[in-house]
Design goal:
The complex is a heterodimer of chains A (112) and B (114). With 112 residues, chain A is mainly beta. Chain A has strands spanning 4-7, 10-14, 19-25, 32-37, 44-49, 55-58, 61-65, 71-76, 85-92, 100-102, 106-111. Helices cover 0% and strands 54% of the residues of chain A. The chains are: A mainly beta (112), B mainly beta (114).
């Protein structure tokens, strides 16, 4: 089946640093989604991208829909302790927008 | 609005036991799905439903059954639990239609099979 490859698998950063992570696929996606999972909770949507080349921000988070439609990037600026968690990329398996396939996640740790 | 609720929060089973994980939503979303999350594996789709009376298999359906008799509920059944089914299970719902609509996740059920 379709797979989303996320990198890095984990990151340890100092508070205040910027963070970059990415997601790639061998297949074209028409929508790219970024979710965050806090410890002990279910994932929550951060950003949704709908067009190739689109750049969207949500506070300190910025995500981009790659031109090839096979990748997406998430950047976090000036990280803070509450950024800790697992970040997942996801995309719809078909044109009907459901169901979603998820990457394996990037685990972010922030050192104060 | 309770959103997506899952019960129980924690469960321990012995190998061979059966149980049902409950998922309920009050958002009138047509689409519901079940995922399992294992360390380093991300979220893997077990079963999903695009509406009452319609279900389909996801990536890892073996050992699990589902049914969708109402819009609100989407229970996940383990007929004969195995240690390999030890995992955290998440239910998610989504409003279908044009464009992408946010998928909402429940708080999860943590299942241990001994």
């Amino acid at each position: 089946g379709q797979q989303l490859n996320q990198s890095p698998q984990s990151m340890f950063i100092q508070e205040g640093e910027d963070v970059s992570m990415n997601c790639t696929s061998s297949s074209i996606f028409n929508t790219w989604l970024w979710y965050k999972q806090d410890p002990g909770e279910g994932p929550v949507l951060l950003i949704a991208l709908y067009k190739a080349g689109e750049l969207t921000s949500n506070g300190r988070l910025t995500a981009q829909f790659g031109i090839t439609r096979k990748d997406s990037f998430l950047n976090i600026s000036a990280s803070i302790p509450s950024d800790v968690g697992i970040y997942f990329c996801a995309g719809p398996l078909n044109s009907g927008n459901t169901p979603l396939v998820f990457g394996k996640g990037t685990r972010l740790s922030v050192i104060a | 609005n309770a959103g997506v609720t899952q019960t129980p929060k924690f469960q321990v089973l012995k190998t061979g036991q059966s149980m049902t994980l409950q998922c309920a939503q009050d958002m009138n979303h047509e689409y519901m799905s079940w995922y399992r999350q294992d360390p380093g594996m991300g979220l893997r789709l077990i079963h999903y439903s695009v509406g009452a009376g319609i279900t389909d298999q996801g990536e890892v359906p073996n050992g699990y059954n589902v049914s969708r008799s109402t819009t609100e509920d989407f229970p996940l059944r383990l007929l004969s639990a195995a240690p390999s089914q030890t995992s955290v299970y998440f239910c998610a719902t989504q409003l279908r239609g044009r464009g992408y609509n946010e998928q909402f996740f429940g708080p999860g059920t943590r299942l241990t099979v001994l």
